[in-house]
């Protein structure tokens, strides 16, 4: 490598570290702060700063043209002191080991915040499902399960949907696992179709949880949801249902986006029409001539901003220009640490990802409980239980942030890490 290239790489890394763009390192930084605030020793941090297990797999898949393509996949298990690990599987071209590790650590925090009997796990495959056929996706999904089957299971590690994965992919994965084990195993995975043991309300759960957090945050800020201007980045599972719920609650959804651009109308977008137009990957803007960029979207004039797409979207570059009074993170890791500090100093109420997006895993837990007992709940039962969990979790973290005089993210990490640290201690690990 030429000397200038090395120098440029070093400069880039230094900037990344400074800005906290490296998700894994910035997660470690906050975990350390949270454990220090809670009075835990250095050795507890040594245990919790990395996943306990990280599996990398190579998955050969026969493509439709007859050629074999080999994909790389990961499954990370952060900590299983509380119970089996739990978390989604992401299919995305930018999946990488560090990101999957960070995502599994966030799952631990989410499970701690909403008090589930799980630790955190996460998986991912480097691929672009938008460019693959239905049959290729099925072979890839089944190949991934064969590759990780020794490490996962209903009482070990329970996968679920995440970016660019859905209930059909969960169904293939469940079927493959059941074939390997030679018995029906609905509790192996959540986010399944209803007929295969899925739960009412799982598809909309992440958006419902975010909506509940928006309601609580709006009360704290004295903002009326009716007529409030809302901007949502991402129009997939989390973003599209959220836009719909906000629209139905009387809010004015003025901006939405997908991976290809954003739509803006100061008078409010026709969300029901956009929902009909979006494809299964949450793409809708390609059909419109007049679009703005994702970066412009984030800086629009609004009361409530919801990043619901990918990580590192709000950084030092744009944090000063954000106009919203409330930011609720539906996506995992959309705001860097430095940007969190800027936004908090500016008096913006930021509801962190590990709290705001925990509705998804909460209803996944409900699904797993229903699979284990073989008795299924109504949509109303699921919604009511989710509401109680999310309201209590929000209030707990808000209260912690006020009494301990820390920002909402650090408060959420303190609440989220405590149970895992205690369980690790009682097991005699540290
Ligand atoms: N689905 C779930 O239950 C949960 C999802 N999340 C998080 O919410 C976020 C969105 O996930 P889903 O809605 O499930 O995914 P999805 O795959 O259904 O939708 C993703 C959306 O993000 C957009 N997108 C992709 N790349 C982008 C880019 N570079 N710039 C702007 N937009 C881009 C896509 O076009 C699509 O509209 C992710 O961060 C995910 O980890 C968090 C908790 C649970
Ligand atoms: O539903 C689940 O188990 C996990 C959802 C997930 O991956 C997430 O919250 O990031």
UniProtKB/TrEMBL annotation:
PROSITE patterns, per the entry: GLFV_DEHYDROGENASE
For whether the record's keyword set contains Oxidoreductase, the answer is yes
The GO terms this record gives for MF are: oxidoreductase activity
Keywords on this record? Oxidoreductase
| Family matches, as SUPFAM superfamilies | Aminoacid dehydrogenase-like, N-terminal domain (SSF53223), NAD(P)-binding Rossmann-fold domains (SSF51735)
Q: Where is the signal peptide?
A: none
Glutamate/phenylalanine/leucine/valine/L-tryptophan dehydrogenase C-terminal domain location is 199-428
Recorded superkingdom:
Bacteria
Record-stated family: Belongs to the Glu/Leu/Phe/Val dehydrogenases family.
- This chain's protein is named Glutamate dehydrogenase
What organism does this protein naturally occur in? Fictibacillus terranigra
